[in-house]
Amino acid sequence: MMSRVDQVAALRSRYQDDLAHGPARFFQPRRTDCPWCGAARLKVRLTTRDLLQGKPGRFVLEQCQDCRHVFQNPQLNAEGLEFYYRDFYDGLGEENLAALFRGHDARYPLRAEAVLPHAEPETWLDVGTGQGHFCDAARAVLPHTVFDGLDISAGVETAQQRGWVRRGYRGGFVELAGELAAQYDVVSMFHYLEHSTDPEAELIAAHRALRPGGHLLIEVPDPQCRFGRLLGRWWLPWLQPQHLHFIPVGNLRERLTELGFTVVAEEHAEPHDPVDLLAAAWLALSSVAPRKDEPWYAEAPGRASRVLRATVLAAGVPLLVLGWLLDRLIKPGARRRPGFSNAYRVLARRDDRPR
């Protein structure tokens, strides 16, 4: 198996070719209106860079002053999405992603349980399933439910090979919705919709894939979370450049109703992930510390840079510990008080045809 050093060296020439003319070609023209409601009153909410991978580029989030929708503007085009997703969920990033999914194992059954008061599904499609970790864990809660997964990455094929899903569909949900029409009792989108270039088209696809009376389960970052304003670009759920849309819960409820759904449950406390301050501390330290070797940099860092990075990160351990402790102290408050949860969950039933 090729070492990481050799992998980086092999990938460097491709990345340098991609960046030879700068990252501007990765973006669509800037919009002058809101993609959610069409209003023209936009205001910059945040300007940042790629804090996780460190790939070059400057990213702007704007907010509609009418409906409060937050979106990346200008938005990445297809070439840009390929560039910034590359080696994040697979390739160089696959091992880190697998560790992240394992760290959320305890949360997966809770997501499945959110449906139980309303339905006992026979078939479930998890959209944006990755390698199928949720589907594998959810069987403990729903042993008689058959799970399928859908994703644009090769991970969904791995999920099928492991038997974590009955069938793994590789491709875009909007394009595959006709093939999947009226097949499922539940369609889930866990931290998927914010990655979509067109969230409304995804909701319409979900309506199409569901049987009448079926349920759509959505979990997304909450742009109304107070930590988003307090921590600014260090708030992890902004996750630029991958997160393209941030939908206030009121907007989502209204649009689901227009599309023929009835919202039957809304949760803010349960989806909260107590990582805001720990993640902010890590992102800030990583920004200060010299970079590690990655193929999108023209050359590997020297020994002095590596030593300096290790020194800065080691010195920051108390800050990380403090962030971890504060996150856990704040978690009960996030459960009791609105505005502190960093995510929300909505369950909606398909009742009518889309209007």
Q: Could you characterize what this model shows?
A:
With 355 residues, this protein is α/β, with parallel strands linked by helices. The protein has three domains: 4-77, no CATH class; 92-273 and 338-350, Rossmann fold; 276-331, no CATH class. Helix content is 37%, strand content 19%. It has helices at residues 4-18, 78-85, 94-103, 107-113, 133-138, 155-162, 173-176, 199-209, 226-230, 249-258, 276-288, 303-315, 317-336, and strands spanning 42-48, 59-64, 70-72, 123-127, 146-151, 168-170, 184-190, 210-221, 245-246, 261-267, 343-350. The chain starts with a helix and ends in a 5-residue tail after the last strand. Keywords: Membrane, Methyltransferase, S-adenosyl-L-methionine, Transferase, Transmembrane, Transmembrane helix. It holds the Pfam family Methyltransf_23. This is Class I SAM-dependent methyltransferase.
